[in-house]
UniProtKB/TrEMBL annotation:
It is found in: Cytoplasm. Belongs to the YqgF HJR family. GO terms for molecular function: hydrolase activity, acting on ester bonds; nuclease activity. This is Putative pre-16S rRNA nuclease. It holds the Pfam family RuvX. It comes from Variovorax paradoxus.
Length: 149
């Protein structure tokens, strides 16, 4: 088994293994993709997520749309789905999603929680979702919300 590089991010634990302050009530979640990023909003009280329009942009254009969503929804924190192989091993998209999470933290000064999102797209497609990206973001956010005390 190859040793992990010291600067390589580690995939998130399942379920979320970080303390989420109880005053964090509202969240925006993202299912990061190179061309499309699914978005969902939700809150701790209801424990449910609502799909939002998928962001179909890259680079700075993506962050302009993220900024508009943050201004609209005013979340307490953000949630990013981080994919990995079925055995939990990281891959290239793992690192891309973690980079996206770091960029969100830096640009918007909000706490960002990373959630293992294995099979979220498969689950979204199996449920017949019309927008698999937004449905995946809902699955990611609801998984996160279920992990909260």
């Amino acid at each position: 088994m190859a040793a992990a590089m010291p600067d390589a991010p580690v995939p998130p634990a399942t379920p979320v293994a970080v303390a989420v302050p109880s005053h964090f009530q509202s969240f925006l979640a993202f299912d990061f993709g190179l061309k499309r990023t699914g978005v969902a909003s939700g809150n701790r009280l209801l424990g449910a997520a609502t799909p939002q329009a998928t962001i179909k942009a890259e680079g700075d254009a993506r962050f302009a749309q993220v900024e508009a969503r943050i201004k609209e929804w005013q979340p307490d924190a953000l949630v990013v789905g981080v994919p990995c192989h079925p055995d939990g091993a990281p891959h290239e998209n793992t690192r891309r999603a973690q980079k996206f999470a770091r960029q969100l933290r830096g640009r918007f000064n909000l706490q960002v929680f990373e959630v293992d999102e294995r099979y979220s797209t498969t689950e979204a497609l199996a449920s017949g979702a019309r927008d698999a990206d937004a449905a995946s973001a809902c699955i990611i956010l609801e998984q996160f919300l279920r992990s909260l005390p």
